[in-house]
Amino acid sequence: MWDHPQLKARERWREVGSSVGPLPAMLPPGTWNDGPRMDPVPALGEHTDAILAELGFGADSIRTLREAEAI
Description:
alpha+beta; two-stranded antiparallel ribbon; 11% strand; elongated
């Protein structure tokens, strides 16, 4: 798939950052004036605390979950 001639001709591949280095990523469908947003791939668990806080978990609850190795 990486070498598919049509995808190459249409320049559909970009590189995105990750914790293991750059990775190939296909552009999402559509057209943009400034190009699509291609943020780095989050590391495993990188946003866990923020997501749990957004869901209403307090710092103590999150700490308890970590101590129990539930997250």
